[in-house]
Every structure is written in C-alpha cells, then in structure tokens.
Specification:
It is a single chain. A hairpin with a 2-residue loop joins β13 and β14. α8 runs antiparallel to α19. The chain is of the alpha+beta class. The N terminus is likely disordered. Helix content is 53%, strand content 7%. It is built from 25 helices and 14 strands.
C-alpha cells in the first residue's frame, strides 16, 4: 500500500531535496547547502506540531463513541472482530508477561490450540503494549492502537509527501489525510488494525527512495530490513499490498523516466540485499512456525471477493453522502467496503491526472491506482456484484493461485489507491498554490490589488473543487453500542466450582466466527480457563501422515455438537435428539475436556436450553443470569 522508488524528488547525498526532472534545480540546492541548514522558526515548529495533533483530533472524533466508555462500548460494524482483537492483545500480554511462547496457545480451541503467528495478532504492537494491556485492559489497547494508528499513519504519509513530493505543507497535510482516512481505510478502521496501522509503510517507501538516490546503501539497506521485519509483525497482508503497489509504481516511473531509473538499479538492489540480510534472521523462525508449526495451514480460500465496478464510484456506508444499504449490497460486509471512493473524487483525480500528465510521478501514481483498482475487481468482473448479470475475466486471474496471493481478499487492493490518490491531490494543491503565486508576481504594479484578488480567486477555486470532491466521502463517527454483560458466574469467579485444572468452560453455543462474545468472558477472567472452539484461523483438517499441510478455515474444525448448538442458536428450531446425537455429545464433551456448560441469556436461549436438556438428560441449574450444566 504505497508508492515506490522513483518519485520525482529524491534524497541526495547532500541531504537536500533534488528534482531529478529539472536538473537546473541542483544549482539552487547546492547554493542552499553552502549557506548551511536553516533552523525552523517558532511558527514553523508550531505548524509542524499541529499536523500530527490535527490528525489525532480527527481520529479521536472518529472513535468518540468508543472512548466515551471503554468498559462497555463496542464498535457495531466490527461485528465479531472487536472481541477477537481484544483477545489477541490480551493473550499476547498474558503470554509475554508470563514468560510463555507468544506464537502458540491452547487457551482457545482447547485442547488443540491456535497458531498465533498464523493469525493477525500484530506482535509488533501487541507485545510492546503488553504492559498497557495488563494495566488498563484489552479494550484500552484496542482503542489506543486504532486511534493512534490512524493518526500515526496519516502523519507518516504527510512526512513522506513533504519530504519527497512537495514542500507545500498544506498539500502534504491533504495528501496524508486522504491516504489514511480514505473510505476503505475507514471501513477497516471498524475492525482491522492490521490494515489501518500502516505508519511503517511510508517509512519503507522513504528508505527505498534513499537507496534509489545512491547515498548510504549499507545504512539505508539495514534500516529498510528492520522496517520490513517490523511490518511483518504488524501485518503481512498489508506488506504484500504495499510491495505490490511499490513494484507497480517503480516499473511505471522507470518507463516514464528511464534516464533517472537506470542509475538507481545498482544501489537499490544492493540495499535490498542488505535489507534481506538484516530482516531474514529476525523473522525466519516466526515465519517457519507460521507456515510449518503446530496448527499451521497452507492458505485460506475466500471465494470470489472482488469489487464490483459500481463499488468504485459509490459512497461507503459511513460517508457523509453514503447510503448503508447501497454500500452493503456492493460489499462483503461493513468491514470490507474496500473501494467506495465516490464519483466526484474519482472525477477530480482524472482531471488532475490529465492536467499534470507531463510529470512522470503523476503518470506512475495514476497508473498504480488504475492497476490496483483493476486487481481489486477480482477474477470475474461484475457491474454490481451480481454474476447472473454477466461477467468479464479480470486481471486477478494472473495472481489468484500464486503463493501468498491465494489467501488475499482481492477487493482490498483498492486500498492501494488511497495513498496514490492522496499524492495526486497533494500535487494538485501545489499546482493551485504555484498558480496563485505566479498571479501575484505577474501584476505590473507591486501593490496592485488586482494581483492579490487573482491569487485569492485561484486558491478559493482550488479549495472549492477539492471540497466538492472530498466532502461526500468524509467519514461520520463510528457507531457504537453497549456490549453484552459477562455472565455473573464468570465475573464473580464462581465458575471455579465447576472447572478443575485441565478442564474447559464450554459456552453455549461455542465461540466461533459467527459469535465470539465468550472470548470477552475469558479476557475478563484473565485467561483462568480455556475455551473450546473459537474465532481464529486454523487448519481445516489434521495434518496427513505424509506431512501435507492442510488448507485453512475460520474457526475450529467442526464437531457435531458444536454445529448442532450453533444451528439452534440461529434458527430457534429444536432439533430431533436421538441416541446418535447423545453419543456425539458425550464424545465431544470428552474431547473438549468440559467441566461446565454455560448458557447466557441470548436470542433463542429457550430452544438451546431445551436442546441441552434432551442431549444431557439434565435440566441444568440457574446460576445468576445463566444456566449451567456441571459435566466435569
């Protein structure tokens, strides 16, 4: 998710910005270097500090509902994911502070366990934030990571744009905001910090640009390796999206400016080799464990998940101009509205690209956005997401069976467009500012009021155009609701009467990708008991004797009783219970090493209770706000 080596502005050995498309600028840069560095004044320092503060304020407003009550508030559009992510943060803190292996746990999917490295636990943040989680709770860490991550990502893109693309601060602020707060980013901001906390990606791009300039290859390559390793522990899918975008940008920019590209090949390859030498030892064992360790899996099939063509020009459900029903019909769910840039913004981007087409960076940025959008359409392109209306073959067919790419949700490639669009708009605002400055200088009389009016008119016109394109996609604060209470049996510790060491507490129905509230119970109990089932990624079957690694699924390998209880929860229809079902229940409870079954108040709980009574031949016992069956 980024641009790539080869922007028009590159970092040279003299640590000054150099315009590779306008060689005459080198003389001016040399004069500035001879004069010595200019220390920023108080106003400049205040402006520099105001930028990240402004991004943080915007992020806080977005998550105002969550921060209003961290003990109870839950992001509606996260569905089950807030529970899952809080569990990831909490279990990492539990293992790290307890001196245990953070790559594996049996606290979920008991007794088989979960390969945590094969899940999005974000060890690059969850491990260093373990003390915060232990002191203030997993929900605090969840809120800090989302809020701070969005602000840090916007700041990092701002810094990159100002360092390598334009010196205009307002333009860079605009570009950073679009890159971090674009519609697909806000969609993932409900539930997926691994696709929102992307501040390392602009730093990776910066190091690639420094290598391109041929400066300190050894140092920059080593830093690049450290950043790549860190990003692997933050989000591997985001890194794959970023590398794809960088590679596309680099190839397009090299084609547009071959003379500038050829001298960059040698230092860039040398730096990449140094980076690999630094990164590989740091990530080798965790990646080995991810792909070959206990409970590992080969890949996960998502089925067709491409964007429809309409999704690119519509508005997201959380945008000011958006309609939730329309967005929902064009996306997998509220967390996967991966396009939805809106037709006014796309029209502006097309206009900016046409107006600034002579610049090689514009060609490469626009081309990167087009390629990413095309890939996001999937293997079968549809107009409105309905295959029955007809499809066309999409470019994703070239990648969908390749290693790593086979597990990607292809519609997410539209996220790569966000920083590219942000940079194009930054260049557009810079052009408006330059046109206004030219208008001021072109007046025949130095104090002519007309020159100021012309300059002001140009700036106002530019601002109005940008507002017309961006206001419709400005996000509304993310909606929150009160989360269900933890059963009193768990909250007051009375579960200990029923669960002995080595046994599990079995929620009814079992936690799964369809319902994960019980993960919050376990976090509230400080992981004092394990849970069968769960919400995670794991293998679909046991590994074969020949060592063949199975494909992956969401959640535990289904067992008959777990499926039966899940069906009753969502249908409300009591099933027929016979000897086969009772025998399966006994086998499943033995497999889970169950100590107690806990049925919390929920929709269709009476049907669930009746089903358990017939399965176990036991009416259960009312304890607080839950029904329990002592089966230890």
């Amino acid at each position: 998710m980024g641009t790539g080596a080869g922007m028009p502005y590159a970092k040279g050995p003299d640590s000054r910005i150099r315009d590779t498309e306008h060689p005459d600028a080198d003389a001016a840069a040399a004069l500035r270097a001879a004069a010595g560095p200019k220390r920023p004044g108080p106003r400049a320092r205040l402006a520099a500090a105001a930028v990240p503060a402004g991004y943080l304020l915007a992020s806080l407003l977005l998550y105002a509902g969550l921060w209003a009550d961290l003990d109870r508030r839950y992001l509606v559009d996260s569905m089950r994911d807030q529970n899952q992510w809080e569990w990831f943060f909490a279990v990492t803190a539990h293992h790290v502070l307890g001196g245990e292996n953070p790559l594996f746990t049996t606290l979920q999917n008991f007794p088989l366990g979960v390969n945590l490295m094969a899940n999005t636990v974000m060890l690059g943040l969850s491990a260093p934030l373990a003390p915060v989680t232990a002191l203030f709770g997993a929900t605090t860490t969840w809120a800090v990571v989302l809020t701070g991550g969005l602000a840090a990502t916007a700041t990092a893109w701002y810094w990159l744009i100002r360092r390598h693309l334009t010196r205009n601060r307002a333009a860079a602020v605009l570009g950073g905001a679009v890159a971090a707060f674009a519609p697909p980013m806000i969609s993932h901001a409900n539930a997926h910090p691994n696709l929102v906390v992307l501040f390392v990606v602009p730093l990776i791009v910066d190091r690639a640009l420094r290598l391109r300039a041929g400066g300190r290859v050894l140092r920059d390559g080593a830093v690049l390796g450290l950043l790549m390793a860190w990003q692997i522990f933050l989000g591997e899918e985001a890194l794959l999206l970023a590398v794809t975008g960088m590679l596309v940008f680099a190839l397009l920019h090299a084609a547009a400016a071959p003379r500038a590209a050829l001298p960059a090949v040698r230092p860039l390859l040398g730096g990449l080799a140094v980076g690999a030498a630094v990164a590989v030892p740091l990530v080798a064992y965790p990646l080995y464990w991810q792909f070959f360790g206990d409970r590992s899996y080969k890949s996960i099939e998502h089925g067709p998940t491409g964007n429809s063509l309409l999704a690119l020009v519509e508005f997201s459900g959380r945008a000011l101009a958006g309609d939730p029903a329309t967005a929902e019909a064009l996306s997998l769910n509220p967390t996967e509205q991966n396009a939805f840039y809106g037709w006014p913004l796309l029209a502006l981007v097309i206009g900016v690209t046409a107006a600034l087409w002579r610049r090689s960076a514009v060609k490469a940025l626009a081309g990167t956005a087009v390629v990413a959008a095309a890939l996001s359409l999937g293997a079968e392109i549809t107009l409105a997401g309905r295959p029955e209306d007809g499809t066309l073959p999409g470019p994703w067919r070239l990648l969908d069976k390749q290693p790593l790419f086979e597990s990607v949700i292809e519609s997410r490639y539209a996220m790569v467009c966000a920083p590219a669009i942000g940079m194009l708009l930054a260049l557009a605002w810079t052009s408006f500012a330059e046109a206004a400055a030219t208008a001021r200088r072109s007046a025949p009389v130095p104090d002519d009021r007309d020159r100021r009016n012309r300059a002001l008119l140009i700036r106002v016109a530019g601002a109005l155009v940008l507002c017309a394109a961006l206001l419709p996609v400005v996000p509304k604060p993310l909606e929150t609701v009160d989360r269900p209470d933890v059963p009193t049996l768990v909250a007051n510790g009375n579960w200990r009467k029923y669960v002995q060491p080595g046994e599990s507490l079995v929620p009814v129905p079992l936690p799964s990708p369809a319902g994960a509230d019980a993960l919050h119970w376990q976090v509230a109990a400080d992981f004092a008991f394990p849970l069968p089932g769960g919400y995670f990624n794991g293998p679909a079957t046991e590994r074969r004797e020949d060592g063949e690694i199975p494909g992956g699924i969401y959640g535990a390998v289904p067992r008959p009783t777990a499926e039966l209880l899940r069906d009753v929860r969502y249908s409300g229809e009591p099933p027929v219970i016979g000897p086969a079902e009772r025998r399966a229940a006994r086998e499943d409870l033995e497999f889970w090493r169950a100590g107690v079954l806990v049925l919390q108040e929920q929709p269709n709980d009476e049907a669930l209770r009746g089903t358990l009574e017939r399965l176990l031949g036991d009416p259960g016992q009312r304890v607080g706000d839950a029904w329990v069956w002592d089966v230890g």
